[in-house]
Amino acid sequence: MESYVLILSYPGDSSARRVLHALQRNGCPALLLDTASFPQAVTLAALLREASWTGHLCYQGKRYDLEAIRSIYVRRPHHYQVREDFPELIQLFLENEAYRGFGGVLRSLDCLWVNSLDAQRRASFKPLQLKVAQEVGLRTPVTLVTNDPAAVRSFFFEVCHEQMIYKTLHGNCLPGGGERYHLIFTSRVGRERLSELEQVRLTAHLFQPLIQKAYELRVTVVGSNVLPVRIDSQELEEARLDWRAACYRVRYRPHVLPEAIARRCVEVVRRLGLVFGALDLIVTPDDDYVFLECNPGGQWEWLEVETGLPFAATIAQVLSAGRAGLAASA
């Protein structure tokens, strides 16, 4: 039985297709499948015996054995799609059953996940990321998470010395209805905003001191492989606080990390239970490396285009090696 890599994403995902083509060039069979295809275009038959699931998927007239899945790469799969001619309550039931059944069987397979869905969910909490980064020896900003206006005021004056920034805890993208999205970038909090502190009571907020930057880094870790990219964010006014605000205009180039920093980045990803992680760091004018956050599902395709670094090939290599290959490189 020939093993293969399962890639979970939507058909138009160009990043997923880059990995698919890299696997094919290496002679590793792969299937790109969207979970939205189940149950209408995918048939599942899975049988549990002796603590192991066996069976197959049928897709586009071809059978794929479950026990032959070597690795699963999770990119951007869409939601399960059921028939729309049923009442809404029935549709919701069918969608939940599809998620629990199809997703549950896949989660039970003895293969490498990049990344495990449960680990990715856990690793998305920024307070946890910051604690893990400190534990492995990376410098992090002093951080306040609070809904207490008095705590913010004290932090602003006593810790930040009136040089403070705010950033979201859950990412910077909010759905705006339909195809619209709203982006919330890192912002500077000045003395004039202190009159609005009562609004802090509405939810949790994350505040940090403003850290001077020479440039920034996006360090992508795949297994034991490290792909560092320098981001010259300080060259553009609109990118200085948050380079994502001008991500299509800033300059990107490969960077050589100090070995100790590279090891710590790999260890952060490992301790978070991930195989893939995209870490954001600041490099200060004094050449200190400061960890900001880790994105378990960070984008990388534009960085491959800009720098020529082998993101897709590296991901494909780890996927084709499977769990045994990952353990050997640890």
Quickly list its features.
single chain, 330 residues, alpha+beta, four-stranded parallel beta sheet, 8 helices, 18 strands
- Rounded to an integer, what's the Rg over CA atoms? 22 Å
Q: Count of DSSP helices?
A: 8
How many β-strand runs?
18
- The average pLDDT score comes to 93
Distance between the termini: 28 Å
Q: Low-confidence spans: pLDDT under 50, at least 5 residues? A: none
| Order of strands in the sheet with most strands | 16-15-14-17-18
What would the principal axes of the Cα set say about the shape? Answer: globular
Sheet-strand content, in percent, reads 25-35%
* Helix/strand order, N-terminal first: EHEEEEEHEHHEHEEEEEEEEHEEHH
Structural class: alpha+beta
Classify the helix fraction into a percent range: 25-40%
Largest sheet: 5 strands, antiparallel
Question: Can you offer a commentary on this structure?
Answer:
The strands form five sheets. Strands 16-15-14-17-18 form a five-stranded antiparallel β-sheet, with helices on both faces. Strands 2-1-6-7 form a four-stranded parallel β-sheet, with helices on one face. A four-stranded antiparallel β-sheet has the order 8-13-9-12, with helices on one face. β14 and β15 form a beta hairpin. It has 330 residues and is of the alpha+beta class. Helix content is 30%, strand content 28%. It has eight helices and 18 strands. The model has no long low-confidence stretch (mean pLDDT 93).
